[in-house]
Structure formats: C-alpha cells, structure tokens
Design brief:
The chain is α+β, with helices and mostly antiparallel strands. It is 37% helix and 30% strand. α1 (12-40) runs antiparallel to α3 (264-297).
C-alpha cells in the first residue's frame, strides 16, 4: 500500500465564499427533499396492482383472456440453450452474465480539515493506493498520484448473453425487456468451461488469466458467470396478446412486466415487500436531503464564526441539532399530508373531519356573538 499526503490551505474569505455557494446548493436540496417525500407516497404499489391480474393456466393458451392483464405460473424455459462463445459452453439459461474483474490499483482518500485562528483552514488529504479485485478499474490518469499506479486496459469485458426465446408454459415473452429474477452463480467445471491456452480454471468459481491466482499481479483477470436458469418456477405478469405476454401499463403509465420466483402469492408478497422497503429508503433519503440542505443554508454563520475555531465548532454542533429537529418535523408533516392526499378514503375522511371542526367552530362563534348581543 502506497500513501501520499496533500495539504491545501484556504483563507477566511474563500471559506465564506464556499459557504455562500453551499447556501444555493442547500436551497436546491431542501426543495428536492419535499419533492422526494411527496412523490414517495404517490408511488404505485405494484403488489396491489398484481392482485388484479387474471390468472391463466400455463398448460394451454387461454384465448378468452386475450388483451387482459394476466399472471401465469410455471417453469421458466427456452428452446435454445445459450452460452458465452468464448469462455462457457451453452447451457439451459435464459440469460447468461459474464462477470470480469481485474486486479488493479484502487485510490482511497481520507480528508481531515483543521480550522485556524482568523477563519482560515488547512485541509489534509491522504491518498492510499491498494490493489484489489474490481469490475470497474479506474484509469490511472484519474488518480491524484498516477506515477507507479498504472492500470492497463481490460483485455476482456463483462457481457450479457440472451437465449433466442423464453417462455412460461405455453406462453412466450420478451425476456430482454421484462424484469427477470435475480441470477445465481454457475459452478465452473472442465466440462462446461471452454479450454484456452491462457485460461486456467480456479476451483469452481473462476476462469483465471494470469500467472498465479495466489499472488496476482496488476492486470490479471478473473471471470465468473451468473445466469437465470430454466426449469425454475416463476410467476410472470403482463398483458396477454395471442400466445405472447407483453408489457402491461397500469392506467397507461406504470409498467409491470416481470417474472419472479415462486407462486403467484409469493410473487405478489415480494413486490409488496419491495414497495415498503423502497418507501422507507426514499423517506430517509428525503429527510437526509432536507437536513443537509438546511445545514448548508446556515453554513455561512459557522464560516463567519470560524475566526475563532471553537466558536465555529460549537455553532456547527448547534446548527446540526436544530436542523435535525426541523427536518424531522417537516419530513413527518410532509409525509403524513402526502399519505392523506394520495389515499382517496383518507382524503375524504380528512375533508369530513376538517368540515366538522370548522362547522363547530363557526357555530360556537355564532352562538357566542348572539349571547354578547343580548
């Protein structure tokens, strides 16, 4: 591991200038956070949409369901095996993924900033260069210190291979367009790997291009494979057209064209779980965007107080606490209001409650006014 250090000094005026730019970025993040939080509750739950699909048998084409949004459960299959022409013989896969990694230099950075009396700052950045396996090696020209950290170009690239056709039972579908189940690793053997002079089989996981797998050199490659296998039970959702299942668009907008492992009920449960998990991820993202945005908006205060570093440090801590609470409250309020407005029943109840409250307030005010006139 190689280590290099770079020190950058910034004056008080420059730091204030950066904090002002940060205010503009903060405003953008603050606005975007509301958009994220609001749209999160308006997302279509594909699990609920899938419940409305007409169930068709995988044995024969049900012409009565032509044009309908359907689901079919059966074994995933293809009439033509697919392989990697260069490295792997054809097998019973619908989709085959070639994954290539190179042993390469990786740049890691760690930055430490010290505030100086008078408002200036000293930024110390440590660059560490280590060698690791990576599927996306950086160009050495992008490194801060490229000398001695040369990454050659990859001789082989990752690739994807599709079977000519795919289907579930009696129905075909466009497997290159549909969302497919997650692939699983392929165990490599001398029978399925294509023999080449510069390739060695390492266990059952990799094909290796290099001198020694135990002592790899920069530029060495290892190749592994994953695939969506045939013969697995899946449930496919889409619109039936003849004997082919095509993409379905809910309300003409939201696309649902997907095959998932398992029965119809298991597939629907999976989509509902994904919807919930993604909902929480987006809510947290919206909150974090709002918190960081508010912190940046108040950044110039801390930058100004950095004339005495301890004052700047205290102000940053207080601002972080206050903006955390503000962001949390605003995020909750935005989420609740969005939930109400994106749920028809909840919106009706909300309007009725508000109407009743306003009615009682108006009636009470009217009675009070009548009593005062007497």
């Amino acid at each position: 591991m190689d280590t290099h250090t770079k020190v950058t000094k910034t004056g008080w005026g420059q730091n204030i200038g950066k904090s002002i730019i940060g205010v503009l970025i903060g405003f953008v993040m603050f606005i975007v956070s509301f958009i994220v939080l609001w749209s999160t509750e308006g997302r279509t739950n594909l699990g609920k949409v899938a419940e409305k699909a007409v169930v068709v048998s995988s044995g024969t084409v049900e012409t009565a369901a032509n044009g309908e949004f359907v689901s079919v459960t059966g074994d995933l299959q293809t009439n033509s095996p697919v392989g990697d022409p260069t490295y792997l013989k054809a097998g019973q896969y619908v989709v085959l993924y070639r994954n290539v990694e190179m042993y390469a230099w990786i740049e890691e950075t760690e930055t430490e900033t010290k505030k100086k009396t008078g408002g200036g700052s000293e930024e110390k950045t440590t660059y560490r260069y280590v060698t690791e396996w990576t599927s996306d090696p950086s160009s050495s020209s992008d490194f801060e210190f490229p000398e001695g950290h040369d990454n050659p170009r990859m001789k082989v690239r990752s690739d994807t291979f599709y079977a000519p056709t795919a289907g579930v039972g009696a129905y075909t579908f466009d497997h290159q367009s549909a969302s497919l189940p997650n692939p699983t690793p392929i165990q490599l053997t001398r029978d399925n790997a294509i023999s080449q002079w510069d390739i060695r089989l390492i266990g059952r996981d990799f094909l290796y291009m290099g001198r020694s797998y135990d002592n790899p050199q920069v530029g060495d490659l290892r190749i592994s494979f994953e695939a969506v296998h045939t013969g697995k039970k899946v449930t496919l959702f889409g619109q039936l057209t003849g004997s082919e299942i095509l993409p379905y668009y809910h309300k003409g907008k939201t696309r649902l064209y997907r095959a998932l492992y398992g029965t119809r009920d298991e597939a629907i449960a999976t989509m509902k779980t994904e919807h919930k998990v993604m909902g929480w991820i987006l809510r947290i993202l919206g909150f974090v965007l709002m918190w960081i945005g508010l912190t940046l908006i108040y950044g110039p205060i801390s930058a100004f107080l950095d004339v005495l570093p301890f004052l700047g440090k205290i102000s940053r801590g207080l601002i972080a606490i206050v903006t955390f609470l503000i962001a949390l409250i605003l995020s909750i309020i935005t989420t609740v209001i969005s939930m109400i407005f994106h749920n028809t029943i909840a919106l009706i109840i909300f309007i009725l409650v508000v109407g009743v409250v306003l009615f009682f307030v108006f009636t009470r005010k009217k009675k009070k006014s009548a009593i005062e006139q007497i």
